[in-house]
Amino acid sequence: MRHIHAPRHGGSPTRGSWGPYALTAAAVTACAVTGAKAVDPDSTWYRGLDKPPWQPPPWAFGAVWTPLYASIAWSGGRALGRTRARERRVLAASLGVNLALNAAWNWAFFARRSPWGGVLGTLVLDMSNAELIRRTQRIDTAAAKGLLPYAGWCLFATALNVSIARRNR
Question: How is 76-140 classified by DSSP, letter by letter?
C-alpha cells in the first residue's frame, strides 16, 4: 500500500502521515511528565518565596501549559512531516533539545530550589525557542506560528522567574 503524505508547504495530513504527529505527541508528553515530577507548588520552600503580585494563580499554569504542549506537538509534527533526511534529523534534534530544556527548568527551579538556576534554565530555553522557531519557519510558516504562544509564555516565565530570584536573594 502506498503512503500519501501532505504537501511540503501546505495541506493537511493524509493517510500514512500521522507518524510525525505521534512522535512529537509522545516527546511532548514525556517532557510534561518528566518536568511535572519535580514541581511541588505546595512545598514549604515554594510557598515561602516572595512572589510578585502579577504572578498568575496556581491553577493558571496547568490551564496554560496544556494547550501550549498541544501546540508544540502539532507544530513539531507538522514541520517534521514536511521534511526529509538530514533536515528532518536536525529539526527533530532541535525539538528534542528544546523539550529537554523545558523539563529541566522544573528540576533547576523546584527540585534544586534554585530561583537563579531557574533563571539560567529559562534564558537557555528562550534561546532554544528562538532557534526552533527559526528552523521551523524555513520548513513551514504555520508550524512556526504555532510555536509563538509557547515562546511568548516562556518569555513571561523568564520575567516571572527573574522577579522571584531578585525578591529572594
Answer: HHHHHTT--HHHHHHHHHHHHHHHHHHHHHHIIIIITT-HHHHHHHHHHHHHHHHHHHHHHHTT-
How far apart, in whole angstroms, are the C-alpha atoms of residue 147 and residue 145?
Answer: 5
- What was the pLDDT predicted at 18? 84
Backbone angles phi, psi at 8, to 5 degrees: -60, -40
Q: How far apart (Å, rounded) are the C-alpha atoms in residues 25 and 48?
A: 35
CA dihedral 62, 63, 69, 71 (to 10 degrees): -170
Q: Of all residues in the chain, what percent carry a pLDDT higher than 90?
A: 85
pLDDT, tens digit, 9 for 90 and up, residues 85-129:
899 999 999 999 999 999 999 999 999 999 999 999 999 999 999
